[in-house]
Design goal:
With 316 residues, the chain is an alpha/beta fold. It folds into two domains: 41 residues, no CATH class; 199 residues, Aspartate Aminotransferase, domain 2 (3-Layer(aba) Sandwich). The protein has 13 helices and nine strands. The strands form two sheets. A seven-stranded mixed beta sheet has the order 1-9-8-7-6-2-3, sandwiched between helices. Bound molecules: pyridoxal-5'-phosphate. The site of pyridoxal-5'-phosphate has 13 residues, from helix 6. Pyridoxal-5'-phosphate (PLP) binds next to helix 6.
Length: 316
């Protein structure tokens, strides 16, 4: 283990057992054994950056947890993070808030499609993608990614034929893709969006894993400037929750550049009467985006190390 990874683990690793932690403390209840390796849920054993803990401590000491809202500094921190990490220029009025990315795509399926209409997902994929289509009474259109030379790929001709045959209205895209680990290139996203344009298909891009990029690789967002002609079709979902281990603080973003689509979203969520923001979620997110870069470098070095370790041991 190199020094950087050793330092990161020593500083941030913590035992979460006995802290109402779904991954470890529900092992017996969910899987019938108390001592399994918790690899089924995507949160981590690492404490958040110090600046995040500090701002939360300060608020606990303040002692009041009333209704809250995102301040201008919040937007600045979020927008800067997206500029620097993803090269994307987000406007504040494109941004809506949600307690989580899964809630957002459940809502969006209901807003953008009618009961019984086709919604495509690319499998294998994170199970709630299936749930969001089935639980809302839409028709699940399962495009199966092609495994070629140990890498999952899209056969664009086959995908387009399926979109036409099944009258797909919405595609829920996972980018980077869970579980295949694929980062989609600009060319791949371009081809996908061109197909969406030809057949009037909306694209939800779940970019929750955007900050986990192995050394030497590069994430391209569906909001990349070079894809701007497609923005009227695109909604991006992102969040600090995976990146900074903040899932329990229930704060995520729904990014809608197109004004009409934004209005449709606002009308669509009105009947659910969304509650106020997560106070602690906002504070933690802002602090993480302002001060968490170095922590994230250490984390990604650790993930790279683990990836290499797995390949050397399990796959050798
Ligand atoms: C692709 C993907 N989207 C969404 C989520 C969960 O997001 P949230 O906790 O914000 O609902 C996960 C969690 O593993 C995920 O892998």
């Amino acid at each position: 283990m190199n020094q950087r990874v050793a330092d990161f683990c020593q500083r941030y690793f913590t035992d979460r057992r006995g802290s109402n932690c779904k991954k470890w403390d529900l092992s017996q209840e969910l899987f019938g054994a108390p001592d399994l390796l918790g690899m089924w849920i995507a949160d981590m054993e690492f404490k958040v950056p110090e600046a995040v803990q500090k701002v939360l401590h300060e608020r606990v000491d303040h002692g009041v947890f009333g209704y809250s809202y995102p301040c201008p500094e919040y937007y600045q921190a979020y927008i800067k993070w997206q500029q620097e990490r993803a090269g994307v220029e987000i406007e504040p009025d494109w941004v809506r808030f949600s307690p989580g990315v899964v809630s957002s795509f459940y809502w969006l399926v209901q807003i953008l499609t009618q009961s019984g209409q086709g919604v495509m997902i690319m499998t294998p994929v994170y199970p709630p993608f299936h749930g969001a289509v089935k639980d809302t009474g839409r028709k699940l259109v399962d495009y199966q990614l092609q495994l070629r030379n140990n890498r999952y790929e899209i056969d664009f001709d086959a995908l387009e034929k399926q979109i036409v045959a099944e009258e797909v209205k919405l595609l829920i895209h996972c980018s980077p893709h869970n579980p295949t680990g694929r980062l989609w290139s600009l060319e791949e996203l371009e081809q996908l969006l061109a197909i969406c344009r030809r057949h009037q298909v909306y694209l939800i891009s779940d970019e929750i894993h955007q900050d986990f990029v192995a050394a030497g690789n590069h994430f391209v967002s569906a909001l990349d400037d070079r894809l701007s002609v497609y923005r009227d079709l695109v909604i991006v979902l992102n969040s600090p929750s995976k990146t900074f281990n903040l899932a329990g603080l229930l704060n995520s973003h729904v990014v809608i550049p197109d004004e009409k689509l934004g209005q449709a979203y606002d009308r669509g969520v009105a009947p659910y009467h969304q509650a106020s923001h997560s106070l602690m979620g906002l504070l933690a997110t802002q602090a993480a985006y302002e001060s968490g870069s170095q922590w994230l470098e250490g984390l990604n070095a650790t993930v790279d190390y683990n990836d290499d370790y797995l390949r050397r041991t399990l796959l050798a």
